[in-house]
Amino acid sequence: MFGAQQLAQILDDHDRWLAAKPGGRRANLAMHILRGANLSHRNLSRAVMAGADLSDAILAGCRLEGADFHGADLSNADLTEACLVAADLRGCALRGALLDRTDLRGADLRSSDMLIPVPSAPATDDGGAGDGTSGGGIVFRQAHLGRALLVGARLSGVVMLECDVTGAVLRGADLRGADLTGSVLRGVDLTGADLSQANLTATRLGGALLAGTRLDGACFAGADLMGVELDHCDLSGALLDEARFSRALDSLALDMRHRVYEHERWIDSGGSRGARAELDGAFLEGADLRGVRLSGASLRGARLRGALLAGADLTLTDLSGADLADASLRGAILRGAALGHACLVAADLADARLDAADILEAGGRSSGRSWPADLSGADLARASLWRAHLQYANFTGADLRGADLGQADTTGVRFAHARLDGVVGLDRTFPASPPSIRVG
Question: What is the pLDDT of residues 306-365, one digit of tens each?
Fold first, then answer.
């Protein structure tokens, strides 16, 4: 066990290491006993604490991005408002840990012990747990678990109130009786998970994968299921009072379907047949437009809140001022698109292409010129841009507070006057202005 002076020296050396100053050394606290230690508000990003005993430790407000906690004991630790983005928490003991407003985006929580002993009970006829353990007692409040790896996690009875779990992987997880009230579960992979008797009241599940998920007795009252693929999902035993679902393209007004069809003819014929879609101000909230081809269309001010546009081709499309809040644009092609002053709050743009579009001459030949995507003044608060292609995009004056730019390509991006508080994954060493780009 470290003395106070020795621990203080290790923490100071780690600060110098993070700042690339002489004499710095990465903190290695692996296998050490730090029970009850007060490390609040320290920067221990990328520190090695594998196997350490941090039970009852105070880590509130601590920066722990990329830290190695493999096999560590964090039971009853205070992790309030701690940042554990991309941390390795495999095999950790987290029983009784305080996880209020904790940021666990991209963290690896596989095999973590989130269980807490409860009085033993016999197995129930409906397959309920009778092994004396459950996720009861684990409470996440307003925590960020986006892209967290929780494959096969045993979380029956866990409480996740108003948490952001966007893009998390919960395949095969046991979430029986879990309370997920008000949480954001956009793009979550729940394939084969068990959500029997779970409370999903007022959750947002746009783009979530529920194939093979057990939903007997699950409550989706007031839940947003727009964009959820329900082809292999059995909702017959679930409670769906006031739940909202996507509107398939076939269910839209005949005139709207005709315009989309004519636009695709216009694209395929190089403009000789069909007609360019003029859909300014169109009401398309919750519409299922996956894979639709609307490149070059005009959708200025369109209402696309909660729409499913995954894989859609929106190259050079004008979406200026459009409302795309909570929309799923995962893997969409938005090269050179105009999104100035658009509302993209909590939108899912993971793997989307927002790089510059090539300007073609007659006959389809490249002109050697490019047109960058314009997101100036756009509201992207809490949006997911994970692994997005953003080369040379214009984010001047955009609101990116709380957005996830993990693994995004930000080469040449313009962030002048953008609001970047709480952005995850952004390299703040980007140049003030991008290299020159030929604009047509």
Answer: 888 989 999 999 999 999 998 989 999 999 999 999 999 989 999 999 999 988 776 667
- Which residues lie closer than 8 Å to 100 by C-beta, 6 or more apart? 80, 81, 140, 141, 142, 143
The total domain count for the chain is 1
Tell whether 427 is covered by a domain: yes
Token readout for 431 is 């140049």
Nearest-angstrom CA–CA distance, 134 and 116: 6
The whole-model pTM stands at 0.70
The range of the structural domain enclosing residue 382 comes to 247-440
Gap between the Cα atoms of 221 and 109, Å rounded? 29
- Phi–psi pair at 367, nearest 5 degrees: -90, -10
Query: What does the pLDDT look like over 129-172, one tens digit per residue?
Result: 344 344 445 678 888 888 888 888 888 888 898 898 988 899 99
Alpha-carbon distance of 434 to 356, in angstroms, equals 13
DSSP symbols for 186-207: TT-B-TT-B-TT-B-TT-B-TT
439 within a domain of the structure (yes/no): yes
**Closest residue by Cα to residue 45 from 64, 73, 26:** 64
Instruction: List CB contacts of 248: < 8 A, sequence separation 6 or more.
Output: 288
Contact 393, 373 (CB under 8 A): yes
Cα separation, 365 vs 369, in Å, equals 11
Cα-trace Rg, the chain: 24
Distance of alpha carbon 110 from alpha carbon 121, whole angstroms: 26
- Of 1, 28, 3, nearest in space to 13 by CA: 28
Tell me the one-letter amino acid at 196: S
Q: CA nearest 162: which of 183, 180, 147? A: 183
Q: Which amino acid is at 410?
A: T
Q: Locate the DSSP E strands across 52-153.
A: 99-100, 116-117, 133-134, 139-141
Q: Rounded to an integer, what distance in angstroms lies between the CA atom of residue 8 and that of residue 25? A: 13
Report yes or no on 146 lying in a domain.
no
Is 361 domain-assigned?
A: yes
Q: What is the CATH number of the domain that holds 318?
A: 2.160.20.80
296 near 317, Cβ under 8 Å? yes
**Residue in the structure block whose two tokens are 């403009």:** 271
Both structure tokens of 183: 């949480």
